[in-house]
Amino acid sequence: MATFIRSCAIDGDLSAMKIPRELLTIPNLLTGFRIVCAPVLLIMAWHGYATSFMLLLAAAFISDVLDGLAARLSGQVSQFGAKLDSWADATLFSTITISAWWLWPDVVRREAGYVVVVIACYLLPAIVGYLKFRAITSYHTWIVKCAVAAVGLSLYVFFLGGPVWPFRLATGLCVLAAIEEIAITAVSTELHSDVRSLWGVLRHLSNKNQK
Fold first, then answer.
1. What is the pTM of this model?
2. Which range of residues forms the domain containing residue 193?
3. Do the beta carbons of residue 145 and residue 129 sit within 8 Å?
C-alpha cells in the first residue's frame, strides 16, 4: 500500500485525492452549516421541539447572511460557492416547509396558498434555468436576497403567534424575485452566478454588443 502511495505521488496522481481548497474556505463552511442543520431541524420538528427548532433555524439564517459577506471581504467569491449556496438554500427551505407542517399544521393549512406560491417562486426559475442551460442557476439578486430575508423574518412572526400579513407581503416579494430571475435567464446567452439585478445583466449585454 505504501509503495502504491509513493508511486502515485511520483506520478502526480495523488493530487486527485486532495480535498479541493474551495471546500475549506470560511464562506463555504458557513454555507455548509445550513446543509448540516437540515437533518437536525427535521429531527427537532418531528419530536416537537419548537423552541430549539427556532433557535437553530435562526443560526442557519445568520450563516446565510455571513457566508456572502465573508466571501466578499476575503476575496473568496467563487462559482462553487454560489452553487453551494443555492443548494443550501434549497435544502433549508425544503426543511422549513416540512418542519412547519409538523410543528404548526393549522397555520400552514390556513396559509397553504401563500406557501405554495413561495415554493413555486423558488422552483420555477430553477426549472427554467435548467431547461436553458442544463445547470442550476445561482443568481442571488438583490431582490432574491430581500425576499429570503423577508420570508425568514415573517416566518418567526406568524409561527410565534403574530400577524400573517408580513408573510403575505414577503410572498409578493418572492413573486417579483422569481419574475426577475426568469427574465435574466431569458435574456442571458450564458450561465451567470451572483448577478445583482436584471438591469446589470442587460447593461453587461449592451456593453458586450458594442465591443
1. 0.80
2. 105-211
3. no
